[in-house]
Amino acid sequence: MAQDSVDLSCDYQFWMQKLSVWDQASTLETQQDTCLHLTQFQEFLRKMYETLKDMNSNTIFERFPTIDQLLAKACWNPFILAYDESQKILIWCLCCLINKEPQNSRQSKLNSWIQGILSHILSALRFDKEVALFTQGLGYAPVDYYPGLLKNMVLSLASELRENHLHGFNTQRRMTPERLASLSRVCVPLITLPDVDPLVEALLVCHGHEPQEILQPEFFEAVNEAILLKKISLPMSAVVCLWLRHLPSLEKAMLHLFEKLISSERNCLRRIECFIKDSSLPQAACHPAIFRVVDEMFRCALLESDGAPEIIATIQVFTQCFVEALGKENKQLRFALKTYFPYTSPSLAVVLLQDPQDVPREHWLQTLKHISELLREAVEDQTHGSRGDPLESWFLFVHFGGWAEMVAEQLLRSAAEPPAALLWLLAFYYSPHDGRQQRAQTMVQVKAVLGHLLAMSGSSSLSARDLQTAAGQGTETDPRAPAQQLVRRLLLHFVLWAPGGHTIAHDAIALMAHTAEITYEIIGFLDQTLYRWDRLGIESPRSGKLARELLKELRTQV
């Protein structure tokens, strides 16, 4: 590696001297010498780019203080520009010098200079000497007219692409596939230049009629990278076209979102919501093809994590953002719900898509019973492993898990006999793999715990140990078991909602949080509960204050 660096430095000095000689003289001998060295110089440029691409602009100038002079001399040499791939590699090298976020006037001036050089390269092979003489005769220096020339060229090409898109099968007026491919290749190093945005957008939305994609993969990758890093801003229609035409870009966008979520603070749904909305994925997912890919990646993450609560919560926030985007795009669905959720009952999807805040509170119980009936029909009336796998119904229900949390609250706030439909809904949500018999046992266990909690809710001498005893009756000893998770949820809802629960909340949670895993589970529950209360506008001052105190206390412990 060190030897390569020494070799490059020596080559750099050699070619700097060569370019100076070629620049100062235009004799036949210098032209012949230039032509003899074109292949070697192109190879030097390629090595130079491999070195520059891993550095930022400041580092490049620290190592190669005269790099701008070397590239400028090469750019103004018509023999170099005309040879093989030298023009393209020069563009790549120049783009490495650009300051993405200029901090001072020197860096801004450098960016303007680079833009002018890039404009010259792009136009050098299209405009002859007479054009140059004409512009000079009008009193315009290259630095004045090249940026405007680039902008006009981009707008002209974008207009031609739009016409190409409209003409469809009119082959006489259509741009050739080869030219489209060439345009996309030329755009790769220029994508982050603001003036090139219209051309990038036009290329993305211009669909050819060839059986295979004609735009270069490098173009899609470069555009996607620039979007993810916020270096360019394109209309949503162009982003949707990108992700529809190039699946790896959509997958990378999802992985980029996952990386941000993993590196962020655990169990903070507000921050998760910001990341998700900022990713543009919920808006793009209004197209069913994109939604299906995104949903499948969420499914894989859920399976890989063995149903981790954090993944479930993220899916629910994403679904909420997606439903909001769907509502903004069009009040009437452009696509049937079946195209988004093809393996589940459309009537179930319609009911779940209702936002609880749009349903009157007095109708919540009836809506929950209806959801339970539809799910039970889908789950227990079909053979496991078929196309209508019960897990598909569960995965759909997971998207709208806010309804499940409302079940526990409804059960604990009513003194009436717990409806079997609601007990079944809770048992299914927390343990979808269970068969009918196992689920019936869970329902009996939950009903017993509810009976104890409701009996204790009016007690004046309630203790945390009483809650622990109620939770331990008939439950499994493994705290990670789904039934135990369900019972913990009931206890947590109880301490937040029941008047007697407020007085023992801190002690009760201290007894429950005896492992780090359970502590994170409780933190997640409190964060989700506050997030949901805020959305639905159902937070009571006392319960909200208690939940925030508990959340703050637990976060200091982990």
Automatic annotation (TrEMBL):
The listed locations are: Nucleus
What is the documented function of this protein?
A: DNA repair protein that may operate in a postreplication repair or a cell cycle checkpoint function. May be implicated in interstrand DNA cross-link repair and in the maintenance of normal chromosome stability. Upon IFNG induction, may facilitate STAT1 activation by recruiting STAT1 to IFNGR1.
Organism encoding this protein: Rhinopithecus roxellana
**Subunit structure and binding partners:** Belongs to the multisubunit FA complex composed of FANCA, FANCB, FANCC, FANCE, FANCF, FANCG, FANCL/PHF9 and FANCM. This complex may also include HSP70.
Q: Which UniProt keywords apply?
A: Cytoplasm, DNA damage, DNA repair, Nucleus
Entry protein name: Fanconi anemia group C protein homolog
**An example Gene Ontology cellular component term from the record?**
Fanconi anaemia nuclear complex
Major location, coarse class?
Answer: nucleus
| InterPro entries reported for this sequence | FANCC
Biological processes per GO annotation: cellular response to oxidative stress; interstrand cross-link repair; nucleotide-excision repair
